[in-house]
């Protein structure tokens, strides 16, 4: 920048610099290479932070301005659920402080109902597991300031062979609303071969007809690329098959979900499935990477462990307010993998824009040995002359006040370090 002279006010100078910065970021982003996970038959994504594919939500419920947060019973309890577990989980979300951080949905997954409908064709809660009924449970959860979620299926049966809601959408939605349900996870088993684009809208319409505000979470497993059509139907849509508690499953799911980044935004989110943090199948570093990347991808943060009996390490990970803030940032742009290099591309840089012209940046080492990973400004959409402060979201401290051109860090094997880059508005004079 040339030396500034004359009688311009400092406010005008700062405004001019901010404008130049925004334009350079935008121009740099437009020339990013085609993302490696895009298939040949699909339209290439040339902008790493592109959101132009995002559809206009038609659910009309005003929910999901940011990704949903809460807890789901399946990953830890599977079918071994009952009203005592659900109530104690609600209590634990309050006592641990997780609810104050945004974990407000208490979601019951499959196996809550009897194996057949009653004589009037209505769903019935399992009399042994939920003897007090779902309305009583919803009232209890609501009394804690939390919200209750339930599960059904866009098929003849649920995945555990309880009655599904296909052809019963209006009756079941009305029943859920009468119970005070706030969230519906809608699965894909026993779908009779009917296209999902035909099976999922009727439940949207049925929910809307109840007049109750219910979060609508489609669980179509990504088989028919729901990111292409589900934004006009639900608040989130599964882009992948079920996660399991392993490094291999978690990383595979990340790569699948990544390519759909342009289709997510406020009102509707890509869902790579629930969190496995705390269930024992991965290391501390792997779980921290899992949580970091889910947050960056604007994925739903649905805890899948037993929150009544968390370890200190598990709580440390899922309660990181700075990482949660990335997930819940109002700008609502899904972060994505912008560069992979090294052996089999295992040195990875993930990034996504945040409000106030900031960038969330993750350096992820998917190799088996410690490595130094470098993010150059051109790979994350920054013009090379921009200076940034760097805050480490796991150390909770600023580690640089004036980084330019690139940033490097040593990253342990299978670990992920996460940062926020904030442009500094200092004036650089060139003589």
From TrEMBL:
Start and end of every Alpha galactosidase C-terminal domain?
A: 344-420
- Known EC number: 3.2.1.22
Top enzyme class of this protein?
hydrolase
InterPro entries on file? Aldolase_TIM, GH, Glyco_hydro_27, Glyco_hydro_27/36_CS, Glyco_hydro_b, Melibiase_C
Annotated keywords: Disulfide bond, Glycosidase, Hydrolase, Signal
User: Which biological process terms from the Gene Ontology are attached to this UniProt entry?
Assistant: carbohydrate metabolic process
* Lineage top rank: taxon: Eukaryota
Q: Which GO terms describe its molecular function?
A: alpha-galactosidase activity
Which PROSITE patterns does this one have? ALPHA_GALACTOSIDASE
Asked if the Swiss-Prot or TrEMBL record annotates the protein with the keyword Disulfide bond, the reply is yes
Q: What reaction does this enzyme carry out catalytically?
A: Hydrolysis of terminal, non-reducing alpha-D-galactose residues in alpha-D-galactosides, including galactose oligosaccharides, galactomannans and galactolipids
Q: Which family does it belong to?
A: Belongs to the glycosyl hydrolase 27 family.
What's the name of the protein? Alpha-galactosidase
